[in-house]
Amino acid sequence: MTLVLDSAAQDLLFREARTANTFTDEPVTDEQVQAIYDLVKYAPTAFNQQPLRVVLVRTAEGRERLVQHMAEGNRPKTSAAPLVAILATDNEFHEELPSQLPHFPQAKDLFFSERPVREQSAALNGALQVGYFIIGIRAAGLAAGPMTGFDAEGINKEFFADGEHSVLAVVNIGRPGEDAWFPRSPRLSYDEVVTTV
User: Whole-model pTM?
Assistant: First the structure.
């Protein structure tokens, strides 16, 4: 059986997708980011919950505030990328559920009344949305440099002082620069991953 998606799209979204480590100075526009979001917002999550929140770091002051919380090896590329996005979860996402799940508005209180349950669900479904967002960046013809090497507590205090959000990833976005890619690393085979019971 073959995939419905053509080979070029498969390559763009998956086979050629790697973490970019350098970028050109070509700007990434708000229109590009909106097009990315307007595509990936349709991807599935549990209960149609949409906990992902995106902070676009565009100013020098914002960049300085962020870079201080990045792991040392991630600081130069985060400083130089044309756009950096902080991807976080809204742990109060359930407040939106009645409008996002109109056929089952009681899900808000029935399943998500307790904060620990919301945080666990927001982390899982927010991580799904992070993956979709990265694929959306690729679909826009841009390169993504997703990172989890940072001081999460520091970023949460710096950018989400309300205590209602939790950072999941920081993603550098732009056109790939010179020597942007490390060599492709090996992947596990189908037989190593998939079992049947």
Answer: 0.95
Classify residue 196 by its DSSP letter: -
- Cα 29 to chain centroid distance, Å, stands at 17
Q: Which residue, among 22, 29, 74, has the nearest Cα to 56 in the 3D structure?
A: 29
pLDDT of residue 1: 62
- Which amino acid appears at position 7 of this protein? S
Per-residue pLDDT reduced to its tens digit, 33-61: 999 999 999 999 999 999 999 999 999 99
φ, ψ of residue 181 in degrees (nearest 5) = -115, 140
Distance from chain centroid for Cα 120? 17
Question: Which residues have a Cβ under 8 Å from the Cβ of 90 and sit 6 or more positions away?
Answer: 51, 52, 53, 122, 164, 165
| End-to-end CA separation in angstroms for the chain | 22
Residue type, 67: V
pLDDT at 31: 98
Taking only the tens place, the pLDDT of each residue in 101-153 is 999 999 999 999 999 999 999 999 999 999 999 999 999 999 999 999 999 99
* DSSP code of residue 121: H
Q: Please, what's the largest Cα pairwise distance for the chain?
A: 54
| Residues paired with 53 in a beta bridge | 88
**How far is Cα 60 from Cα 67, in angstroms, rounded to an integer?**
10
Write out the two tokens for 29: 């526009």
